[in-house]
Design goal:
The chain is mostly helical and 76 residues long. It is 68% helix and 11% strand. The protein has 4 helices and 2 strands. The chain has helices spanning 2-18, 22-29, 33-45, 47-60; strands at 66-69, 72-75. The protein has a two-stranded antiparallel sheet with strand order 1-2.
Length: 76
């Protein structure tokens, strides 16, 4: 839970610092290997994170940073 809150705060900080959209802030944040590994693990292990990832996929369609490979969610 603490890491999820840190992720949300990190995204808010990236958006503020760079003046970018939510999608672009997530793209920037996922360029960090630590955060990328954490998100990859969370979207497959934590049901709440998986739900957020599926919502992201539906909302962003082709621009989505997440895709489904069988039953596994992966990052582009």
């Amino acid at each position: 839970m603490e890491d999820r809150n840190r992720w949300i705060l990190h995204i808010k900080e990236v958006r503020s610092r760079h003046g970018v959209s939510l999608l672009e802030a997530e793209r920037i944040a996922l360029s960090d290997p630590h955060w990328r590994r954490w998100v990859e693990r969370q979207i497959n292990a934590d049901e709440r994170c998986r739900k957020f990832a599926r919502t992201h996929m539906a909302a962003n369609r082709q621009a989505s940073l997440v895709y489904r490979d069988g039953e596994v969610l992966k990052l582009r």
